[in-house]
Amino acid sequence: MKALQSLKLPVIRPLSRDKADTLLLLATCTLVLLPHASHLPGWVFPSCLTILIWRGWITFRGNRMPSNWLLVSIALLAMGGVYLTFKSFFGREPGVAMLTLLLTLKLLEMHAKRDLFVALFLSFFLVLASFFNSQSIGTALMTILAVIALLTTQLSFQYTGVVPSLKKRFQFGALILALAGPLTLVLFLLFPRIQGPLWGLPSDAQAGRTGLSETMAPGNIAKLTLSDEIAFRVKFRDAVPANSKLYWRGVVLGRYDGRTWTPLQAAGANRRVNIRLRGAPVGYQVTLEPHGHRWLFALEVPQALPIIDDNPAGVTPELQILTTNPINSRVRYNLVSHTDFDLQPNESAAVLRQWLQLPDGFNPRTLEYAARLRSQSSNPVEMIDAVLRFFREQNFRYTLEPPVLGTHSVDEFLFATRAGFCEHYSGAFVVLMRALGIPARVVTGYQGGEMNPADGFLTVRQSDAHAWAEVWLEKSGWVRIDPTAAVAPERVEHNLSSVIPRRVLGGLITIDGTNNQLLAPLLKFRQNWDAVTNAWNQWVLNYTPEKQKSFIRSLGFGDVAWPVVITVMVVLGIAAVAIAILPMMLHQQKRDPIDALYQKFCSKLARQGLPRYPYEGPRAYRARLTAAPLPPEKKAALARFLEHYETVRYGVQRQLRPSALSELKSLLAECR
Question: How far is the C-alpha of 628 from the C-alpha of 671, rounded, in Å?
């Protein structure tokens, strides 16, 4: 016990005001830079973090700032690194990288309050720049937190005298941001919307999109199915079709070079598309995520083309819907489709010959097998059934990790490995069909989807990517054949996880259909979060000029004229500001008129170089003023005012009399 008592612990002394404010600024800048960490080159964020730690060490130790020569050298190295990384100083990514580096370097040369405001304004701009990379709910919440932190930091440097606690300052910063909420809502709803971004995005703004490609080779779609990103969402107006009917048509492939499938530039591209529709139609709305290509996805087969503002859509004879410009932002369109139809039953022989082409010198065993089938039957339907029976009965496996295939990929798949994903089965099936003399092609898109009970939307993810085949039959036209269903019917009737277990959290958890009850809370949370994200996308990010016009019409304005809209915006903006400020003005404490006069007296003397100290009462203040080098009549006037104020404010009869207030005003006038 004595040993413990003799042990001397280091005394932790509170930081000085300047050090505490500087460390708060460093923490705020770190919070501002965090959303950019994953989007910056690998060396930029560690460099910024190193500079922030260096600045924090200088603050703790009280060391001198680095010399200007050292700062200039570091800045030149940083800018050189940006140029070597991007080969340019212009563009979104190099611009953001330079701003992050300049912000941290600015913290090393802060000598006046002007430098503080430069750092704060740079931080505000970087907060705005975080929306270049993501506009999700998480980014919005991080932005709100960063703005409150910046306001808290700015307030901390503005206080003089007693400084409130950090919690109080943070609450004050949050209150300032909340007061801007009503006006922000008015501007969001009524400020004239411009189609497209306010500034033209640079060429690198659409990099890194994931989704289907316009080519297909063994393994392409299998890799895509490992992604859990959302491709599009669907809201059905009618009854939802069975999962086996949910084929979302995308890219049609017809040219084969022995390994890779690409679109076929078919002759007669402007020919009329002949479709016979049967059965009840299905109405729905698609919200498509940006994928950087021109194609749209639709349930086979739509009655009419979708309408997208400023991006007209057309259709190819293969029923591939293409827009004029790439889909680089979220779009929403309405469709009505039939899942039962006949497509091009009267196709010409010249066009059909193009869907029979095969490259020379590839897959001899496949061609030999097709020749044997043709010798047994000349009926196309019987030959198709024979091939599907071959897939079902010859121990084929449906797997995301098939063996690597060589030059004769179809031969090796059909007669050696017999393990593959949907692109293996559809590609091999089309090759067999063409070898049998049956026109065939590959169609890629998505199959199925996951119904979210939280909001009633069908969510189609990249993991739902699929490839199937179409064959042309006389009197029926192009008929969909999904060879994957012959091997793994659960994939089409349910979803991918019913056939292939899905691994999440780095493989720690496997979802295979047997542990649904254990993972039910996690699944419910995911569905609810998807519903919230979808609502954010539908009502906030997808608030287009057309939606704005509809909202303005709902307010009773038939003709949406921008002068009227701006007038309404100004009026409602003033009302929003009043709603935010009036409650504070009404609830603020009424100031004692006696104290108001005393404060006015002290302010006048402070401007003349005689301020009242915080610890001084009126009597001590009067004694110090009496000893000050002032004219006698000035001293007498000041003394009379302070003496009368002390009597009125602290006397026995504290009730304010009108005569006392009037006399104080007269004495204050004498002090001038």
Answer: 15
Give the pLDDT of residue 481. 92
b/e for 656-667, b at 16 or more Cβ within 10 A?
eeeebeeebeeb
Which contacts (CB < 8 Å, 24+ apart) does range 198-204 have? 201/92, 202/90, 202/91, 202/92, 203/91, 204/91, 204/92, 204/93
Q: In this structure, what are the phi and psi dihedrals at residue 478, rounded to the nearest 5 degrees?
A: -80, 125
More confident position, 464 or 662: 464
Q: How far is CA 78 from the centre of its chain?
A: 28
| Alpha-carbon distances of 325 from 87, 310, 312, rounded to whole Å | 28, 9, 8
Q: What is each CA distance from 616 to 162, 621, 622, 637, in whole angstroms?
A: 15, 6, 9, 19
Residue 257, CA atoms < 13 Å, CB-side half-sphere: 8
For tokens 């404060």, the residue is 599
Element (H, E) at 447: strand 440-447
**Distance, CA of 385 to CA of 381 (rounded, Å):** 6
Per-residue pLDDT, averaged over 366-389, amounts to 91
DSSP string, 559-620: S--HHHHHHHHHHHHHHHHHHHHHHHHHHSPPPPHHHHHHHHHHHHHHHTT-PPPTT--HHH
Q: What count of other Cβ atoms lies within 10 Å of the Cβ of residue 341?
A: 17
pTM: 0.67
Radius of gyration from C-alpha coordinates of the chain: 37
Within a 10 A sphere around the Cβ of 3, how many other Cβ atoms? 6
pLDDT in tens, 378-407: 899 999 999 999 998 888 888 877 888 888
422 a catalytic residue: yes
Q: What is the pLDDT of residue 204?
A: 41
With contact defined as beta carbons under 8 Å apart, do 637 and 609 qualify?
no
Look up 18 and say whether it is catalytic. Answer: no
- Of 345, 351, 245, nearest to 301 by C-alpha is 245
pLDDT of residue 493 exceeding 70, the answer is no
The catalytically annotated residue of 464, 466, 530, 644 is: 466
How far is CA 389 from each of CA 381, 386, 492, 504, rounded to the nearest angstrom?
12, 5, 17, 35
Neighbours of 149 (CB within 10 A): 23
What six digits make up the tokens of 614? 């915080």
DSSP letter at 269? T
Our answer to whether residue 595 is catalytic in this structure is no
Two structure tokens written together for 623: 């004694």
Q: pLDDT tens digits for 288-346?
A: 988 888 899 999 889 889 988 788 898 888 889 999 999 888 888 999 998 888 888 88
Q: Say how far apart CA 309 and CA 547 lie, in whole Å.
A: 12
The residue from 21, 455, 464, 482 that is catalytic is 482
Q: Cα separation of 300 and 366, whole Å?
A: 31
444: helix, coil or strand? strand
What letter represents residue 263's amino acid?
P
For the segment 580-606, what is each residue's pLDDT rounded down to a tens digit?
777 766 666 666 777 788 888 888 888
Please tell me which residue in 422, 464, 530, 644 is annotated as part of the active site.
Answer: 422
Contact status, residue 83 vs residue 89, Cβ threshold 8 Å: yes
At 460, list the tokens.
């189609």
Residue ranges with strand state E in 213-353: 230-236, 247-253, 255-256, 261-262, 275-278, 282-288, 298-299, 313-315, 321-323, 331-337, 340-343
φ and ψ at residue 323, rounded to 5 degrees: -95, 165
